[in-house]
Amino acid sequence: MERHVLVVFPHPDDETMATGGPIAVHAAAGTPVTYACFTLGEMGRNMGNPPFANRETLPKIRQQELREACRHLGITDLRCMGFRDKTLEFEDPDKLTALISELIEEIHPSLVITYYPGYCVHPDHEALAHATVRAIAQMPAASRPVLQCQAFAHGHQEALGPCDVVIDASSVWEKVYLAWKAHKSQTSSYIAEVDKALQGDEASRQQAIERFCYYGLYTYRF
């Protein structure tokens, strides 16, 4: 059991899609989980299927979806950091680093989870991943929390090798599924496929469940 887990991502749904299983496992074990979500994903291209949001309503809708997803995953401390979607790469890196350092100093986590810098595709992902690494690297080695990172860029396995942290989230798969479902503006088409499989034969059902069960992360080496 960790003392406290701090999750740092830029968008509503990153917590669920990237690391929903690990978060739910930690929360189910009784570990407090704080999620620092830096934007409201207001520039997202998906508006629901069929569409039920527009550019003006999307931020509020996504924040509501995020709160519901956090409830399912067991995140009780959600920090909406107030930045604008698709702008983090243009923010002062020192400002981002300082904000994450302040969170770490306040929360004193034993584990921090973010994306792996250089292997997370989106500029917002990269900006926060690098800022998180800088914030922890500035700390004395003896007091640093463990940093675990999600990588998904093409070729990341060739560059980084196999994941050294593999988490079985089968005991909490339904919580992760419900968190995905909560982000309906972004996931409705995908969840429709999952729901169809869950209502199918046993083989289809098991295959659908396994989508929410196994997660690989990398321990960042400073």
Automatic annotation (TrEMBL):
List the transmembrane segments. none
| Gene3D superfamilies the UniProt entry points to | LmbE-like
What Gene Ontology molecular function terms does this protein carry? hydrolase activity, acting on carbon-nitrogen (but not peptide) bonds, in linear amides
Pfam families cross-referenced by the UniProt entry? PIG-L (PF02585)
Superkingdom field:
Bacteria
Task: Kindly provide the name given to this protein in its UniProt entry.
Answer: Bacillithiol biosynthesis deacetylase BshB2
**Organism, scientific name:** Alicyclobacillus acidoterrestris (strain ATCC 49025 / DSM 3922 / CIP 106132 / NCIMB 13137 / GD3B)
